[in-house]
Amino acid sequence: MIQFKEGECKEFIIKPNNSLSWRGNKVFFFMLFFVSFFIAISFAMAGMWLIVPFTGLEMLLLGSALTYCYLKNSQCEIVKIDEKKVSVSLIKMRDTKVFDCNRYWAKFILNKPQLKGYPHKLLLRSAGREMEIGALLTDDERIKLAGMLKENIKQF
Fold first, then answer.
1. For residues 24 and 55, what is the distance between their CA atoms, to the nearest angstrom?
2. Is-contact 44 109, C-beta < 8 A?
3. Residue 51's pLDDT band (boundaries 50, 70, 90)?
4. C-alpha–C-alpha distance, residues 48 and 42, integer Å
5. Contact 152, 10 (CB under 8 A)
6. Closest by Cα among 89, 79, 58, 60 to 145
7. CA 115 from chain center: how many Å?
8. To 10 degrees, the CA torsion angle through 62, 68, 74, 77?
9. Contact, 80 vs 13, CB < 8 A?
10. Read out DSSP for the chain?
11. Do 150 and 6 contact (CB within 8 A), yes or no?
12. How far apart are CA 36 and CA 88, in angstroms?
C-alpha cells in the first residue's frame, strides 16, 4: 500500500497490505478460543479430558502466530524527497535504518527480474551506495511506485 503526502517535502509511506487490524485479530482469536474451548469442555464432560490441554496448546500457538504476523506487517518504509536530499527510512518494530543521499545524485532504478515469475527490484542508488525500496509491495505496486518516484524527483 502506497500513501503519498505532499507538503514542504514529498513523502511516500510504503506499508504491506494487512488483512486485519490488531482489533480484528483479537476478535478473531477470541471467537475461535471460545468455540474451541466449548467443544473441548463438551468432550471432557464425556470423559475425553485429554482434549483440553491440547486445545490450550493450540490456542497458545495460534495467538503467538497472529501476534508475530501482525508485528511483521507493522513495518513500513518512508521515502522523503525535498529540494536537497532524498531520505529513506526503514522502520521494523523498534529498529530504524535511514539512508540519506543528495537529490541531484539519486537515481531510482527498476531492475527487471532475471527469471520469469520473479518480482522487479526497485533500488535507490547514489554515490556508489544502494538500497532496495518497496520490498513490502506487490510487483504491480512496485512498478507504480517506481514511476511515481522518478516523476517526483524531477519536479523539484
1. 22
2. no
3. very high
4. 9
5. yes
6. 79
7. 24
8. -140
9. no
10. -EEEEESSSEEEEE-PPPSS-HHHHHHHHHHHHHHHHHHHHHHHHTT-TTHHHHHHHHHHHHHHHHHHHHHHTT-EEEEEE-SSEEEEEEEETTEEEEEEEETTT-EEEEEPPSSTTPPPEEEEEETTEEEEE-TTS-HHHHHHHHHHHHHHHHH-
11. no
12. 45
Question: 16 near 91, Cβ under 8 Å?
Answer: no
C-alpha 146/C-alpha 79 separation (Å) is 12
pLDDT digits (tens, 9 = 90+) for 93-105: 788 899 998 888 8
Q: What is the distance between the alpha carbons of residues 30 and 33, in angstroms, rounded to a whole number? A: 5
Nearest to 28 by CA among 73, 52, 74, 62: 62
Instruction: List the CATH code of the domain at 2-18+74-155.
Output: 2.30.29
The pTM assigned to this predicted structure is 0.72
Q: What is the pLDDT of residues 61-89, one digit of tens each?
A: 999 999 998 888 888 899 998 888 999 99
Please identify which residue in the block is written with the cell numbers 532504478.
Answer: 109
